Amino acid sequence: MTAIDRRDGRMARAVSRAARGRPGRTLSGRPARLAGRVAAIVVILLWSLFPIYWALNTSLTTLGAADSTPSHYFPAPLVGSSYGAVLGGSGEGFGSSNELGRSLLNSVIESGAAMVLTVIIAVFAAYAFARLQFRFKRTIFVSVLATLLLPAYATLIPLYRIMASLSLVNTYLGVVLVYVSGFLPLAIWILYNYFNSIPRELEEAAFVDGATPLRALVRVVIPVAAPGIAAAAIISFLLGWAQFLFPLVLTTNLSTQPVTVIVAALNQQRIVPFTLLMACGVLAAAVPGVLAVILNRYIVEGITTGSVK
Amino acid sequence: MSVTFRRRILPYVLVSPLVVFIGALSFVPTVDTTVEAFFRVMPLDPPTQFTGLGNFRALFSDPVITTSWINTAVYVAIGVVLSVVLGVAIAVALKRRFRFRGVLLALIVLPWALPAVVEAVIWNWIYNPTFGVLNSALHSVHLIGGYHLWLGLDRWLTILLIEIVQVWQITPLSVLIILAALQSVPQDLYEAARVDGAGAFSSFRSITLPLIRPAVAVAAVEALVLSLNIFDQVYILNGIAPLGSSIMLQTYVTTFQNLNFGGGYALSLMVTVATALLSMAMLALMYRRAEAT
């Protein structure tokens, strides 16, 4: 039996089993069903967005209004002073001026550099895996993908010691190298699947015109694969922005600490008012949040090829 | 250099940066963890020497580590069950196309895209005993008489509430994986079932579930790996107290606060082996059941 026969057989059996089940309600009415769907969507939206709304709500009001019982569900009075305080470094519990701004910059640099490096390395390697023949290809490919199954932290202690021995603790380079090694397998998997979905005829036309494989990759394949590359890039960036344990270990002061480490430290102090803490949280979430909404198409693409294939 | 030679070495040039990165920063460290787990490694108290199973024996006789293993098992159980059930429910609700579904999907993915630490700080405020909105909301609908201290008092409640924060983050992943599978189930199957008199529930149980089972397995394994390695949410919402401690938190504390690197290596090795074995077992189990039906 071929795989398709098996699948059809399974489906046919599924249909007959379903038919044997309880008979369906015949009168469920369109308005009732519509109301049910709307209610379901409202519940899903509340579950997904309420905590984010709550952070915004608290960050946009005064401490007196935030620290009240029962809670105020809308920011009244509406003030933006928390944002001014955390970005100006004037809030209670803020050690240096503009601690948060600097850590945001560190996050941009670290996740941005890790994204660029990951995508460049992954595009070339995934192209070789998808299109070229060479010795040990299968072994290398399988070993790289196998690291996807390793928990990220399996390598935490040795990576710390490697970076310490190279004097790369508390440097951008150390953080970026660790990120890239962690993000490469997923980027390879996304790009490998994307390249395989591109018809080979495209490059063959270029070869007929005398192009080398490298030129075919740069001139023909990369432009066509732009959505796949965007997916690998945005997912790498989001993974980088969200890192906490690795930078907690690999960075020691504000010269390299990303925003996640600073937000955790401010939270730990127990004296930072919740209005300021939520303003920090909103600022730390703003970059990945806006990117995720705008580039949602690529994220969905990346996650579904990254896991289902 | 001749053209053929350049063609022949091209693949090696293309993959060499990858091999260097993964080799030096994934394989070498993994091997290092495996080897050093059997050594006494104390940076402040040399020398480093072979201890056989000494690190493991010390870990197994430490009650905090035992507590953390049990806690982690509970985190995993809650995380896998909740994120898969919610993932299936939300994916089914969003299966049919409607206006603004794209916008809705983009919004649902948000919790996955934000840093877990930031999310945990926000939920910490929601769970706040004096001014938290959870107390306020439950109190105003009379589900609780007075304000509760949610975290740090009752072990299982603390674990449940912390894992809910992680479930909130990882459920979008399950939704996307399961939604992709749902949309590849041919519509005519449902038509055929309906013609034969099947209701919505029996269609779901007999057609949808068997056909999306591989996707459910993938979502379950993702949730398993993420919850087995839970750190950020525990660090923020529980601190380093044993009450809600996870095994990854103990790895961090053992290594970087107690500076017992050997113990940290041994814990890392055990988590790695547990992750690999459990995820393979779960995939095998769910795929075999999919084949059997």
Characterize the structure shown.
The complex is a heterodimer of chains A (309) and B (293). Chain A is an all-alpha fold and 309 residues long. Chain A folds into two domains: 52 residues, no CATH class; 210 residues, Orthogonal Bundle (MetI-like fold), CATH 1.10.3720. In chain A, helix 2 packs across helix 14, helix 8 runs antiparallel to helix 11 and helix 13 runs antiparallel to helix 14. Chain A is globular, with a radius of gyration of 25 Å. By secondary structure, chain B is an all-alpha fold. Chain B has one domain: MetI-like fold (Orthogonal Bundle), CATH 1.10.3720.10. In chain B, 75% of the residues lie in helices and 1% in strands. Chain B is built from 13 helices and two strands. A two-stranded antiparallel ribbon of chain B has the order 1-2. The interface between A and B is large, with 105 and 112 residues.
Low-confidence stretches of chain A are 1-5, 21-27
Helix content of chain B: over 70%
CATH class of the largest domain in chain A: Mainly Alpha
Question: If you compute it from the alpha carbons, what radius of gyration of chain A comes out, rounded to the nearest whole angstrom?
Answer: 25 Å
Q: Can you write the helix and strand succession of chain A as a string?
A: HHHHHHHHHHHHHHH
- Helical/strand content category of chain B: mainly alpha
CATH superfamily of the largest domain in chain A: MetI-like
DSSP helical segment count of chain A: 15
Distance between the termini of chain B: 59 Å
CATH-defined topology of chain B: MetI-like fold
The assigned structural class of chain A equals mainly alpha
Assembly classification: heterodimer
What's the CATH topology name of the largest domain in chain A?
Answer: MetI-like fold
**Strand adjacency order, main sheet of chain B:** 1-2
Count of the separate structural domains of chain B: 1
Number of strands of chain B: 2
Q: Report the CATH superfamily of chain B.
A: MetI-like
Radius of gyration of chain B: 24 Å
- Overall strand count of chain A: 0
Any guess at the CATH architecture of chain B? Orthogonal Bundle
Helix content of chain A: over 70%
